[in-house]
Amino acid sequence: MRLALALALLLSVPPAGARRADSVDNAFKRADAVMDKGRFAEARDVLDDVLAELEADDRRLVRYHERMGACWLRAGKIPEARESFTAALKAAQRLKVSDEWVAKAYAGLGLCLRREDNDAYALKFFKKARAIKVDEGTAMFIEDQIREIEGEPPLPAQ
Question: How many H-runs (helices) and E-runs (strands) does the chain carry?
Fold first, then answer.
């Protein structure tokens, strides 16, 4: 009986790597929730806690840097945002990652360049973002930015 109970308890506990992945994913969600409330310093603190959990070869480093860039951008800190988005793209290149977080880093860098009145260079980043599969909302945002830079009217909402 004790052996069966011990096995049942042991089997119900996720492996350490799974627990760490869950804690990192939950921390990303917590950082996004805090950021949505406009508490950017707190969101950066949560993200810094995430960074402490990540190894140098962890693909989630791209997401960390992209989320940090988004936090800086929303706080109006353009140089810091550019630095974070650039770090995300460098990590993506080093780790050979091409996912939604890479696309969002390209789009974020494009937004930084637009804020610096450099639409011509921003367009290149939005086009790189467009080449990566993303969710529908992000894709629409990227397309709107491209159309606006190119002087075309936005598409009507559907």
Answer: 8, 0
